[in-house]
Amino acid sequence: MPVPAAATPAAPGEFALIERWFARATTERQGIGDDCALIDAGGTTLALTKDLLVEGVHFLPGTDPAALGHKALAVNLSDLAAAGASPRCFLLGLGLAEASSAWLDAFSSGLFALARAHACALVGGDTTRSLAAGGAHGPIVISITAIGSVDPATYAGRSGARPGDDLWISGTLGEAAAGLLVRQGRLELSDAARAACLRRLDWPEPRLALGRALAGLASAVIDVSDGLLGDLGHILRRSGVGAELDWAALPRPEGFAHVPEELQWRCVLAGGDDYELLFSAPRTARERVAALATAALPLARIGRILPGGGCVVRAPDGRPIGTTLGGYQHFAPRD
Ligand code: ADP
Ligand code: MG
What is the mean predicted confidence (pLDDT) over 194-206? Predict the structure, then answer.
């Protein structure tokens, strides 16, 4: 999720913009609306995804370039994880105001450490100077296109959630959003919680092994990049269903108990950048899903899919909470 910026009223939101100008009928729009597009490459099905990071929008100026290299690839691998894909290779587009060797050393070390860990080779890209009006330094712009391979027979996408399915989330929610608030001086946490939240914000881990293990088990999967409610909304709309979430079941960060309730809701329900996998699965798969949890990556059953539409989050006493919160959207009035 990007750093909040000034309001831009009376413009279409990010998803209305994509739908109006870029989504085209049937064959041309394979995959628009899912985390990856699936392309039949004759015997192999490729999963393709692209993410764009812009300085001042997605990360603050002065961000550790090693973390940036890691994160630029991690957010793309996270989309491959949501598709249940195995990474194959990636392309790197880079716009830089200046070619600083120190910056490039750190950026490439962060990038390649993650690429190596997932056997994902850099196979091309494009590099350009980034200038603003009048020749001033422009923002750093990083765009990665990642390519993986996937089994189309077990691919879930976002449209297969059915009433009665359980809703699950991996790991914890809200840590990255809390990390951003900490960095902006808007939230006080203990030293340990502060370090954990900043690490989560800067060094997200794509859940690739879990994504592959969910193939054939989950009915719908998405990675949570723009906040739980917003990304769940994508599953609900594309599946034509509604959902109910149990606030008490949502995995919150450690050291969060003293944080005011409304701020907890904002981080856990609407905070972005967690890159956990949110998925639905039939109740009959409950035991098999639970067996995929590990000490390093727990899985929480956080609610259920209902007929109808929309999502309600219920407190333990049944009252709905956080009803005004949504996911992050570029060009939304509050963007
Ligand atoms: P993610 O968060 O996984 O990157 P989103 O939830 O933002 O994806 O979904 C946006 C959908 O629209 C994705 O399928 C993405 O590929 C597609 N999309 C985004 N921008 C464009 C664009 N400029 N042209 C075509 N498709 C786009
Ligand atoms: Mg995604």
Answer: 96
In whole angstroms, what is the distance from residue 130 CA to residue 258 CA?
Answer: 43
**Which residues have a Cβ under 8 Å from the Cβ of 39 and sit 6 or more positions away?**
30, 31, 45, 46, 47, 48
Residue 4: closest CA among 271, 228, 274: 271
Whether ligand 1 lies within 6 angstroms of the CB of 34 is answered as: yes
- At residue 268, the 3 state secondary structure works out as helix
Q: Compute the distance from residue 291 Cα to the ligand 1 centre, in Å.
A: 32
Tokens 């064959």 correspond to what residue?
27
108-161 pLDDT, tens per residue? 999 999 999 999 999 999 999 999 989 899 999 999 999 999 999 999 999 999
- Pick the residue whose CA is nearest to atom 13 on ligand 1: 33
Question: What's the whole-model pTM score?
Answer: 0.92
Cα(79) to centroid of ligand 2, in Å?
5
Please state, in angstroms and rounded to a whole number, the distance separating the CA atoms of residues 198 and 163. 37
CB of 251 closer than 6 angstroms to any ligand 1 atom: no
Average pLDDT score over the chain: 91
CA of 236 relative to ligand 1 center, distance in Å:
17
**Residue 189 in contact with residue 255, Cβ under 8 Å?**
yes
